Fold:
Amino acid sequence: MIVKNPRFEISAVKPSQYPKNGLPEIVLVGKSNVGKSSFINCMINRKKLARTSSEPGKTRQINFYNIDDNFYFVDLPGYGYSKMSKVEQEQVGNFIEEYLFNRQEISLIIFLVDIRHEPTANDKLMYDYVIRSKLPFIVLANKADKIAPTKVNNYVLDIQKILNPIGDNIFLPFSSEKKIYSEAVWNEIEKSI
Ligand code: GTP
Ligand code: MG
Structure:
């Protein structure tokens, strides 16, 4: 897909602030600092449209990026950022749940995990939540640039074996840093919208 005019549309903290035009939404889910905002920038070829940081906890609201009036990328706050106060973590958890649970426009969840690590307890909880939601999703093992290219597929398989032992869901490698593996992800996005 060639993206021509991606733009930030709104930061929402409650459903009344979500866009009302009914465009399909591709939503980024994953622990804090896994690379959700970087993923959006990578896919739309902009360095800084979505705000990123090496410090976890950068994204605190639900940010909607309008992609050529075709669909939205929705950047959710990350979970599991231990330095957030309890109250803030709860608030962020509520934003995420309220959005995922009620939003009819969601056409695909892109669930990011870190290719280098075993999925965390929170990753497992979120994976179960996504399964129960019955929404379409794919899992991306991000930061694949940190692994030798010949080993990438094995790392992805190891993660799949933990989260999805039956192997009936889609797990793919990804790297925003190197902008590789994005074609397979675009295919999944195009199928969903
Ligand atoms: P929160 O907003 O805190 O939930 O984080 P996030 O998931 O949006 O992460 P963000 O995109 O801000 O990236 C966090 C850090 O990871 C930044 O320093 C990025 O440069 C780095 N990063 C993101 N994607 C990749 C990747 O594919 N490879 C490598 N090596 N680093 C990455
Ligand atoms: Mg972010």
Notes: The mean pLDDT is 93.
